[in-house]
Amino acid sequence: MGVVRMVLRGSVLFVVGVFFALVLNLLQIQREVTVFPPEVLASLFSSAWWVPPSCGMAAATIGLLYPCLDEKLGEPHSYKREWSSVMRCVAVFVGINHASAKIDFANNMQLSVTLAAMSIGLWWLFDRSRSGFGLGVVIAVLATFVTQLLVYNGVYRYTKADFLFVRSWIPCIFFSGGVTMGNIGRQLAMYDDTNKEKTE
Question: pTM for this one?
Answer without folding.
Answer: 0.81
